[in-house]
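# nightly structure sweep
# worker-07 picked up a monomer target from the shared queue
# config: single-sequence mode, recycle default, output format = structure tokens
# input follows
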Amino acid sequence: MISNLQASIARQREILQGWLSASLSSIADDSVKVWPQRDALEARLQAGLAELPYCKYLYLLDASAQQIVATVSRTGLVAPHFGRDRSHRPYMAEAIAGMRFSLSEAYISQNAKRPSLTAVQRVYGLQGKLLGYLGADFDLRELPSTQALYQQPGEWVQLKGDPAIRGGLFHQERVNSPMDQQMDTVLHIINELITIHGVFHAKLHFSSSRATVWQMNDPYRFRLHDIDELSDADLCLAYPKVAYPADAQIPAEAVHNILKVFRELRFMDETIYLRSGLLNIFNGMVGLTFSCDGSHYMPWCEFLEKRMDFWTGAGEQQKVA
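# output follows
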């Protein structure tokens, strides 16, 4: 099954492929006319950079993928690249296998150590004989932005954690933390910060008795609060009042119920228990990390529908929301 992320990447690659293939095909056709004259080929590649405004490097290879020209860049010719063997580079695999035009997966470049792409066009001579390959390298950060921002799907995701922690799970038990001792006060204050004071993302670290929060008036910076601050209602005075956003996916009245379930999961068992919980009112997701180091991310409504026996594996119990 193709994920939303994979589909978003595929759409961007289709746009790039459509933009690149015609220009590279034209450069390849012109190169055939002067093949294998190095000076003439390099001149055509230099002109080709004007046709590919975001291209970083252009070069030509023979049929065995050995470079027959200097690499052409916007700052001049990179002469030491003449004779370079590119046959084993990952971006050459599809072209060598027979694909007329190929666009590589993104990779980290050898020199700049930055995410890059390489397009490769096969170059054919008379009677369809393979002469070689035209390569074009692109730095991802220099490509035009043509895609919409990827949207995270709102579906349940379960992730396994550190196997060393899971292996020692039954040799540990929950230690009552300062936040555990002040749990009700802390949750009431967090509820107030979210519903009245503009906090849209909050993560409670129960075992280490701290919380990180993001506020709508300053969304690019998180605030870190320890248990002394989280158990003092004066904390609310440090945050301005903000109307609860109409486009929030989690209704204001559900925030208290989510925090209540966090409490239940924290105390549900002395071996398997909640270490941290987060909620984001805009994407409507709840995140959980347990003592076994396993993590869950799930829609808030699905989270509230789960019974406690789902988490403990015990028999039928009352819903805890």
